[in-house]
Amino acid sequence: MNLFHVPPDGISMTPRPLSASPARRPETQALQEDLLWHGFAPDTPVLWLSPFPVSRSSDLVFVIDTDELDPEKLIPTGQAEGYVLHVGPIPQAAVTKAKGGGE
User: Fold this and answer.
1) What pTM was computed for the model?
2) What residues form DSSP beta bridges with 99?
3) How far, in Å, CA of 46 to CA of 75, rounded?
4) Residues with Cβ < 8 Å from 73, sequence gap 6 or more?
5) Cys staple from 17: which of 2, 36, 43, 61, with CB 3.0 to 4.6 Å?
């Protein structure tokens, strides 16, 4: 199965700790509790993955082959959109391609 990562900085797949605006703080706290429940520190750097490219305007979208990922590092967010957190960096072998978001 493929998942997608649209880098917030537009260029890289750099894991970052969860953060949020005050309006989204409860959701972020729930995700941090999920990280803790799975054995990771709440401030562990993660990457957001989705079942579809979430931005058509991004210059770059990474396509990730989940068969190449450690399932212990995949944490479903429970959100209706189907987002998944990946703990830590994505192994290069899992990146099947990178393409422009409008493709």
Assistant:
1) 0.83
2) 61
3) 10
4) 86, 87, 88
5) 43
* pLDDT for the residue 103: 46
Residue 25 near residue 17 (C-beta atoms within 8 A): no
Q: How many residues does the chain have?
A: 103
Mean pLDDT by 10 residues, the chain (103 residues): 80 84 85 94 93 70 92 90 91 83 48
CA triple 81-69-84, angle to 5 deg: 15
The answer to whether 68 and 33 are in contact (CB under 8 A) is: no
| 3 state SS of 81 | coil
The Cα 10–Cα 74 span in angstroms is: 22
- What are the residues whose beta carbons fall under 8 Å from the beta carbon of 65, sequence distance 6 or more? 1, 2, 94, 95, 96
